[in-house]
Amino acid sequence: MTQITVTVNGTSQTHEVEPRQLLVYYLRDKLGLTGTHIGCDTSSCGACTVHMDGMAVKSCSILAVQADGCEITTIEGLAQGDQLHPVQEGFKECHGLQCGFCTPGMIMATVDMLQNNPDPTEEDIRHALEGNICRCTGYHNIVRSVQWAAEKMKTSAKVLDGASVSPSPVYASVNLNQQQQQQL
Amino acid sequence: MELQGSHVLNAPPEQVWEMLMDTDVLARIVPGISRLEKTGDNEYKALAEIKMGPVSGSFSGGLTLSDIRENEGYTIHVKQSSKIGNADATIRIDLTPVGPDQTQLTFDGGAKLSGLLARTGNRVLSGVANTLTKQFFENFEKELKTPKEA
Amino acid sequence: MSNKYIGQSVKRLEDKRFITGKGRYTDDIKLPGMTYASFVRSPYAHARVNRIDTSAAKDMPGVVAIFTGDDIASAGIVGVPTGWQVNFRNGDTMKEPPHPLLVPTGSTVKHIGDPVAVIIADSREAAFDASEAVEVDWEELPAVVSAYKATQEGAPQVHPDAPGNLAFDWEIGNPIDEVNEAIEQSAHVTTLEFVNQRLVPNAIEPRAYIGHYDEVSDKYTLYTSTQNPHLIRLLMCAFVLGIPEHKVRVLGPDVGGGFGSKIYHYTEEALVTWASKQIRRPIKWTETRSEAFMLDAHGRDHITKAEMGFDAEGNIKALRIKTYANLGAYLSTFAPAVPTYLHGTLLQGLYTTPKIHLDLYGVFTHTVAVDAYRGAGRPEATYLLERMLDLAALEMGKNPVQLRKQNFIPSFDGVEQPGYQTQVALQYDSGNYHGVLDRAVEMLGYDEFRQMQQEANQNGKLLGVGFSTYIEACGIAPSAVVGALGARAGLYESAQVRVQPTGKVSVFTGAHSHGQGHVTTFAQVVADKLGIAMEDIDIIHGDSDAVAFGMGTYGSRSLAVGGSAIVKSIDKVLEKGAKIAAHKLECSVDDLEYAEGKWTVKGTDKSISFGDVALTAYVPHVYPQGLEPGLDFSSFYDPANFTYPFGCHIAIVEVDKETGRVKLKRFIAVDDVGNVINPMIVDGQIHGGLAQGIGQALLEEAIYDENGQLTNGSYMDYAMPRADDLPSFELDRQVTPCPHNPLGVKGAGEAGCIGSTPAVVNAVIDALWSGGHKVKDIRMPLTSERVWRAMQEQNTQILHS
Questions:
Q1: ipTM of this model?
Q2: Chain B residues with CB-CB distance to C under 8 A?
Q3: Which fold has domain A86-158?
Q4: Domains assigned to chain B
Q5: Which pTM was predicted?
C-alpha cells in the first residue's frame, strides 16, 4: 500500500492505495465519486475523463499513485454550487445527452477543449471529441451543445458585470401543427 | 494467424541442428520463453511471458517435436495456455545448406488463438509475430557468436 | 386538456443529475456487506468441460464462495428460457435446448465466454484473481459460426437434439408456386445475395447486477441494468429459479443505454440472485467491456438471397427471399421473433408487391445469442427492399425516386380509408408515403445533385446518392396477435396515476427509460391532460415493487403503449373527479367542463380546481354518496394494432477513387412518427438511430474467425461511430397520426436505425456506377478496402470482357 495525497474537487484527501489501483477506481470506490464512469477496458471510450491539474485525462489509464500531489476535478466538482458550468448548461439546453452514461466524460473533455480552443469549428469539435464514444445521440446534439457553451463562454467573458447572457436556443419551443391539434 | 519466416545463419546445418535440439539454447533464443524442461522423448514443458500490444500474460504448456529429420528439420507443436487465452501452433522448420558454412532456416506454420488473446490481440498480432521472429533470429546469431562453455 | 406542453421541446427534467454526475447506475450502488462476482469463462467456442478444479482458488484471500455448473444443476436450476416459440413449418415444435447459468462438467460450452464457474469474493480484485486460479480441463471441439455453413451436411452440431442446427424453419407470404410463377413471368428480375452482418449493440454502460437476499423479510432484491424490470422478474421467478414473484423486487435504476441488448433475461441476473441467498450477502457483478462484446446479445446476422420481379413498366410483381438467420448458441428472450415476425412481416415495405414469399431458417451456431438490436428484423427487411429498389433502378436505367413512387401504396389515414392489408400478415394503420419522399427529395435537390455528380465525375471524384423509404411495425404489440404468433407473454403496458391529496400527481409506468426521456415526455402528456404544471408531476419507473406491472421499453413502444395506458388512467381520474366536483358545485356531471386544471359549470364562473377535488377525495366530508374515497387509478392498455412509422432517408457520399474511402457528405431524414409530444427528444432519437444505421453501413461488424473466436472484441478493434465519422443530420418531419391510440403517436426510437443503412450503401453503389463500376453489392461495412477492391474487380471484368 502506498500513501497518496490528492486534491479532489478542491478538497485535499490522503489515502492508502494499492499500487495497482487505477485512478478511476480510487475516485469511484474510495471517494464515492461515481459520476466518473467506466465504459471499456482499453481506454477507448472516454467515459472516465476527469481533469488532472487542469488537463483532461482518461482516469482508467492513470494509476491512483500517479495522481499523488495533483489536483483532480471530476464532473461532481465542475459546477460552482448551484451555478452550472456553461458546458453543463449547453448539454441540457441542446439535448446533448440521452442515457447520460458517456456525458460526464464528454463534458470534461469539452471543457478542456474549450480552454484550448474557445472558438471551435464543427470540425474542430468533432475531431476533439473523437476519443469519447456516445451511442445515443449520434453526436449531432453534442456538437450543438459544445457550440452553445462556446458561445455562452465568449459572451459571458465580454459582459463585464458578469450578467449571464444565453446564446440563442437550438430547441425553441415549437407549436403544434393543425393536424396534431385535431387529433388530440 | 500465419507464421512464416526465413533467415540465413552463419553456421553449417549440423551446428544449427544441434542448437535447435538443445533445450538450454532454445530457452535462451526463443523470445519470451523463461523455462524449458524436457518431460519425455521430444516432449517439453515450457513457460513463457509474452506481451502483445494491450495484452500480456504468462503462458504455460507443452511443446512436442515430430517429423524429426536430423540436420534437416522438424515440426514443432506448441500448446500454451494462459488466463488471457490459449495458443495452439504447428510450425514446420526446415534447414537448407547454403554454401559451406551457412544454413537457411525456414519456418512455416500457423497459430490458433483463443480468448482475450484472440479478441483484443489480433489486430496487433502480425506485428508482434514479426517482432518475435526478428528477435528469434537475432538471438540465434548472438548465440552462434557466443563461445561455447565460455 | 390544455396545449401548454404537448408539442413543445421541453428541456429534459432528468438531465440535471446526469450533467452533475449524480446519475445512479447499478454499478454506482454499494450495499453493506456486498461481495463481488467474477466468472470463469470458456476461451473456446466449443469444448467439453472435462474437469473443473477450484481447490487453489478456494484458498485465496477474500474468496467467499465458488459455484460451478454442477452446483447449479444440483439445485434443480435448468437455465434461462426464451420468450417466444416459432415452430417448424411442418408443425414440429421449435428446438429449445437449455441455456444453463453455468455449464456443468461433462457438458459442452457453446460460445466463447460461456461460463463454467463463478467466484464470489470480498472485493472485485480478489474475485478476479481467484477466477484466474481455477483450472479447467477443456477438450476443444470443432465449431461453426456461419448460419449457412451450420445447416450443411457434416457441420459441427451445437446441440445434439437440434439436427442440422435448426431451431426452426419458417415461411410467410403467398404460396411459393404463385411467387415462382410471377418471378418467371417478370420482364426484369433483380437478384441480390448479401450478408446483413453481425453487430454488437454496445450500450456504453456495461451490464451490471446486484443480487441481494434479505433473511429478515425473506425477500430478494435484484438491481439490474435492464430495459424491463418486470419481465426479468417474471422470467426469473417463473421459469428459472422457481421463487415466488411476490418475494422478489427487481429494480432498474439509471440504465446507460440498451438498444435491445438489455431486454433479455441473462444468466448472470439469475445467478447473483440465487447465490446471494446461498451466501446471505449481496453480490455485485459488473461486466467488463471485453465480456460485453462476448456476451451481450448481438444483432442482425442474416445471409440472404433475394429476387424481385418487375414488369416492363417497372411495377414490382413479386419478391422471393431465402434467408439464413443466425440465432447464436442459445435462444435469447426475443430471438425467435426477430427474423420471423419482426422481419418477414415487413417485407411488403411501402410497395404494392402482389406476391411475396420468405423462406427462412433459424440456425444455431457456436456464437453468442443474436436477438433484437435497435430495429430488430425491420432493418434487415428494409435493407433488403431498399437495396433491391435502388439496384433495380440502376439496372433498368430508371430514376430511383420514380420507381418507388410508381410502386407506393396510395395514402390512407386509417380512419376514413381503411388500413392497408399486406401479403405478409400485417395491416398498416395509416400512411402517406409520397409525402415523406417528396419532402426529402426537395431537401436533396435531385436535379441539382445529378448535375453536381456529373461535374464531380469530370473532376475525378465519385459522388453518389442513395435512397431508402422504410416502414416499421412498432408500438409492440397487440397481445392477442403476438400470442397467436408464439409470444409467451402479453405486450400491453400498465400505468397508475395516483393523485395525492394536495393535487400533486405520481405516475407509475411499466415503461423504462434508459435515455429516452420518459420522465419529461410522459409528464408533458399528464400535465396537459390534467391542466396542471409539469413540476407537480413525478414519473416513477423501474421498480417492480412500486409499479404494478410492466412490459418495459423496446420496439418503440413506450409512448404508444405505455403513454396510452397513462391516458386511460387519467381519463378515470377525471371521470371520478367530475363526480366529486359536481357534488361540490351542486350540479350534474353533464353540466361540467374540464379545462386548465378546473371543473367549471358550463356558462357560469362557478368552478372547482383539480387540487380541491383531490383534497376532497382524501378528506371526503362533503362527498357523493356511495363513491369510494381516494383518487388513484390503474390501467392496462393493450394496443389494437402495431403502429407503423415510416419515412425517407437520403445519403450523399463521396468515394475516393484512389483509396475507396467513403465520406458521408449529407444525410437527410424525413420521418413520420405520428404525433410528436417533444420534438427535441424525437430528433434526438432519430439522430442516435441514424448513427447506428450509418455505423452498420460503414464501420461496424462483429467478426468471428472459423474457430469461433471473436477477433474484434474491444473498442480498439470494433469500429464504433465517433464524432468525426458523421456529419450533422438534416431532419424534417411529417405527421400522420396513428388512428388507433389516444395520443396518435407511432414511436420514434428505431426509425433512424431502420431507414439509414441501405441509403448509405445505395449511395456508394450509385457513386461507383457513376464512375462506370457496375458493382451490384459490397459487403457491409463498406471499408475503404472493400470499396477499392470492388472498383478494381469491376475494372478487371470490363478489361476481360
A1: 0.96
A2: 54, 83, 85-86, 112-116, 118-120, 122-123
A3: DNA polymerase; domain 1 (1.10.150)
A4: 2-145 (3.30.530.20)
A5: 0.93
